[in-house]
Write a structure and sequence with these properties.
It is a single chain. By secondary structure, the chain is mainly α. It is built from 23 helices and no strands. The chain starts with a helix and ends with a helix.
């Protein structure tokens, strides 16, 4: 339909006065938009936006709910109308937009989550993707239904602070603990907390469901490394209690980071290196020691990638492993190539696999 015809149609719509006529006109204008939604120019969409907004104002809930359901999946739907519907106090009107509309950015969603009802937050928690700015609010304000829903949503992303809050809330909430524990992106140290604090029934389900799934997702070569480490036996370890306590205090003061770890490694302070690596990665010192003293550098690369360490720091740690494979010049070059190819996602899955295996062995 030519632009002039569209404008004439919309002007006619606005001239309708009676309520039943406005409802009929709203449906007709919405039909007009949806029939050619992908072909309209920005100027034409803006015109529809203005007219539909004015027509739908003060309409009864059922009419606005119908409008929301029709516009929610449309990528080019008028933005002002969508925002107005999403911010409606009536959840039946807001829900379709909050669940489905890709036009709502994180700023708008976070504001709605901050100011509207638990039902509004529950709808947002079910979106195909939910950014960290939004999940920060959902986890802080949301009730049990909201936190469980967003924790089970694989499209949701969480900041470190909010992940910590989720794990804290999961204590005493079996459903939430299981939802958080089964997330593929959960940091390994938090997965260990979940295993340690969950009730026995939940922990068994996590171990039972995670072990085969994690095994399937591991690349073959790394899966072999994971198996060798997981089934290996540790000899009598050193007592790191005093050193580990000092490193934890140092970290609590904000005085422990990658630079300090690298300095410990370069200075040959093995105990401090192991304890710093344990604290920064969230991996128990006993496991760090076993991996550090092993024959291959691969496990250290995995822990380092989980901790987000740069190659110079990793190199210093590997070089401190005197007499082990990977500490020679050729070995370090090979390790650097492996480290560059190793993604954090793969490293986290391997580390989580180890933790599941150890928990399973302890349970057995």
């Amino acid at each position: 339909m030519p632009p002039a015809s569209i404008i004439a149609e919309l002007e006619d719509a606005l001239s309708s006065g009676a309520s039943h006529r406005r409802v009929e006109t709203l449906r007709r204008v919405t039909d007009l938009f949806l029939n050619d939604a992908d072909r309209f120019t920005e100027e034409q969409v803006a015109l529809f936006d203005d007219v539909i907004t004015r027509l739908s104002d003060s309409m009864e809930v059922a009419v606005r709910q119908e409008l929301a359901e029709r516009l929610a999946p449309v990528m080019s739907a008028p933005k002002t109308v969508l925002r107005s519907l999403a911010q409606a106090d009536e959840i039946d009107v807001a829900r379709p937009i909050l669940l489905l509309s890709a036009q709502l950015d994180d700023t708008i969603l976070a504001d709605i989550a901050r100011t509207k009802s638990q039902e509004h937050m529950l709808a947002i928690a079910g979106r195909a993707s939910v950014g960290e700015t939004v999940t920060d609010v959902l986890v802080e304000r949301g009730d049990a239904r909201v936190t469980r829903s967003v924790a089970a949503n694989e499209g949701a992303r969480f900041s470190p602070k909010t992940y910590d809050a989720l794990v804290e809330k999961s204590k005493g909430d079996d459903v939430l603990a299981e939802a958080v524990g089964l997330r593929k992106d959960i940091p390994p140290y938090l997965f260990r907390v979940i295993l340690a604090t969950a009730r026995e029934e939940v922990r068994k389900r996590l171990v039972a469901s995670s072990s085969p799934r994690e095994k399937v997702h591991l690349p073959g070569a790394i899966a072999g490394v994971a198996d060798r480490i997981a089934v290996g036996t540790a000899g009598p370890g050193r007592d790191y209690t005093a050193t580990h306590r000092a490193i934890v205090v140092q970290h609590g003061r904000g005085a422990l980071g990658e630079a300090e770890l690298r300095a410990y490694a370069e200075d040959g302070k093995t105990d401090e290196t192991l304890c710093a690596l344990s604290v920064l990665s969230g991996v128990p010192i006993e496991l760090v020691e076993r991996l550090f003293l092993g024959d291959r550098p691969d496990p250290i690369l995995i822990i380092a990638r989980c901790a987000g360490l740069s190659w110079p720091t990793v190199k210093a740690v590997l070089a401190a492993r005197h007499g082990s494979a990977g500490s020679s010049t050729a070995g370090l070059e090979e390790a650097r190539d492996s480290y560059q190819k190793l993604t954090s996602g793969t490293a986290m899955r391997v580390l989580r696999f180890w933790q599941v295996r150890e928990a399973s062995a302890a349970a057995g």
